[in-house]
Amino acid sequence: MAETLLSLYVFVLSCFIGYFVIWGVTPALHTPLVALTNAISGIVIVGALLVTGFQEVGTTAEIMGFFAVMLASINVFGGFLVTNRMLSMFKKKKK
Amino acid sequence: MTLSHDVQAIAYLISATLFVLSLKGLTHPSTARRGNTLGMAGMAIAIIATLLGAEVQSYGFILAGLVAGGLIGAVLAARVQMTAMPQLVAALHSFVGMAAVLVAIGTFLNRQAEGTLNAVLMGELSAGIVIGAITFTGSVIAFGKLQGLISGAPVRFAGQHALNAVIAIVTIGFAVHFAMTGSELSLIVMTLLAFLLGLTLIIPIGGADMPVIVSMLNSYSGWAAAATGFTLHNNLLIIVGALVGFSGAILSYIMCKAMNRSIINVIFGGFGSESGGGEDSAGAAAAEKGVKSASVEDAVYWMEDANRVIIVPGYGMAVAQAQHALKEMMELLEARDVEVKFAVHPVAGRMPGHMNVLLAEADIPYDHVLEMDEINPEFASTDVVLVVGANDVVNPAARTDQSSPIYGMPILDAGKAKNIYFLKRSMKPGYSGVDNLLFYQDNCSLVFGDAKDTIEGMVTSLKGGGH
Asked: Span A41-63, mean pLDDT?
């Protein structure tokens, strides 16, 4: 139980960080923000790696893990690349 | 090489720090790309640290998944049209949701095989599965609505909220039973019900509320990641999940505020369906009288002699792909010493900040694009306002007509300008189904036609050397 409680501490404090950091984001970049958070929520890939790599050979869990890794990678790669593509378009006036 | 637990924990801490800095980078366009790069670094560290940990024993399936997902993601990112960003985002949300469900069930199977299940763990697993499943089907529906595969109109039927409440309660019931007994049947029923709940929760919500829904599902995908973190006792997932969850929640709040509606109202009240006939007929009666129409040349005549022109873009601009033509017009006007600015309402488009990206895509410098609060004081001293594909966000009814469904919504003060040219395909009302009172003002004229054709007409006229 202690471990779950510790997780709860981390969770609540992280919520505060999220609150303050996100309010600082300029409204002009809200679409890239959604895309970037998409990419970083691909962090579930860590969970997917742990499930997939748990045992040696083809269990049901390993197959599920494979699909989880694939879906999360789509988020990670797709999310960061599309964010980069969008951000590269935001330019100041050329003098 | 195998990393010890402590080394891995430090790597995760560095990764979490990088993610926070990454989001912080979006404070300004000039630091945003660096932010994105920091995010990539954070993700790379997290993945490598996990792969090198003692828990990961086999790599075949992992490699296959990484390569397949990476390729699909890269192709999607390279190919997607900027107008279709909301759909891409919805699709990506659904993937996070599904991944969270798969991870939770996979963890259950692994721990069952190992014989290390317990009630707390199974409770956490249930949370991960339920949130993930709701995110998945909810996002699939949102994707369908955005892509036009499903009607954007709110789907409503009697007893809808009661039905959702019943599904939710029964789902929780099965979750509790699963946590106490480890029954696989309860696990399966709970999962299926959660998938169903995502569907019934999102299907009633109308197209006008898409910016809120996109933000809300963004938030859910974060909570799904956090719940996964609880099941795995992985602090990195918990931290990142909370960041993303809060990001989506704050965006939802901003969007709701920009429509003067509560989140409860968005979730439970379909918008833009059939509103009562009362206010509509009043508007229709007025329509008979005082709407003026103008030609492209009229608008150009006023614009080229103006000191300042403000352009108000809306989703119609995106549909017509008029942003590139607008950029050309902006340059021609600027060459004549006319100041050109763009006014963006927070809910213009189908997702938060959608207009800004489309204008940026057309190479319109971001310092020409202003938010509602910045630009509103300038309308009164502006010669010409050009409304391109927006409607409700400039409707004075939001200020004056208490019976209007959009009453109380903050609007752009376009009506205060000397001349308003409203580009419009037809007389159809906006998304909310509300008639626009701006049309009946003396200083407003409608220019009928496709937005892109109209703007291109203006460009040609401006190139022609004027009058």
From this structure: 86
**Is the CB of B458 inside 8 Å of chain A's CB atoms?**
no
Q: Domain map of chain A by residue range?
A: 29-88
Q: Sign of torsion, CA B114 B120 B124 B126? A: positive
CB contact, 8 Å: A2 with chain B? no
Whether residue A51 and residue B36 make contact (CB cut-off 8 A), yes or no, is no
pLDDT of amino acid B299: 87
CB proximity A9 to B under 8 Å: no
* Residues of B with catalytic function: 392
Query: What pTM does this model have?
Result: 0.89
Half-sphere exposure of B305 (CA within 13 A, CB side): 9
Question: What's the rounded Cα separation, in Å, for the pair B279 and B400?
Answer: 13
Interface of A with B in 13-32 (CB under 8 A): 14-15, 17-19, 21-32
Nearest to B29 among A17, A71, A90 (CB): A90
**Is the CB of residue B93 less than 8 Å from the CB of residue A38?**
yes
Helix axes A60-87, A30-41, angle to 10 degrees: 160
Is B59's Cβ below 8 Å from some Cβ in A? yes
pLDDT in tens, B346-399: 988 888 999 999 999 999 999 999 999 999 999 999 999 999 988 888 988 888
- Chain B residues closer than 8 Å to A50 by CB: 50, 55-56, 103, 107, 232, 234
CA distance A14 to B57: 31
Q: Which chain B residue is nearest to residue A12, measuring alpha carbons? A: B242
B50/A62 touch (CB, cutoff 8 Å), yes or no: no
What distances in angstroms separate CA B359 from CA A4, A53, A56, B452, one per listed residue?
46, 45, 51, 14
CA B151 and chain centroid, separation: 18
Kindly provide the ipTM of the predicted complex, given to two decimals: 0.94
* Contact status of B211 with chain A (Cβ, < 8 Å): no
Q: Please check whether residue A72 is in contact with residue A42, taking contact to mean a CB–CB distance below 8 angstroms.
A: yes
Measure B34 CA to nearest chain A CA, in Å: 10
The Cα B51–Cα B43 span in angstroms is 12
A-chain residues near B77 (CB < 8 A) = 77-82, 85
User: Cα B61 from chain centroid?
Assistant: 34
Mean of the per-residue pLDDT values of chain B: 87
Question: A93 touching B, CB under 8 A?
Answer: yes
Residue A35 Cα, gap to closest chain B Cα (Å): 6
Architecture of the B282-463 domain: 3-Layer(aba) Sandwich (3.40)
Q: What are the strands, taking DSSP E only, across A1-95?
A: none
What is the Rg, in whole angstroms, of the alpha carbon atoms belonging to chain B? 26
DSSP state of B314: -
Tens-place pLDDT, residues B202-236 = 888 877 788 888 999 999 999 999 999 998 989 99
Q: Which of A28, A41, A23 is nearest to B352 (CA)?
A: A28
Query: If you ran DSSP here, which 8-state letter would residue B115 be given?
Result: T
Residue B121, token pair as written in the block = 């763990």
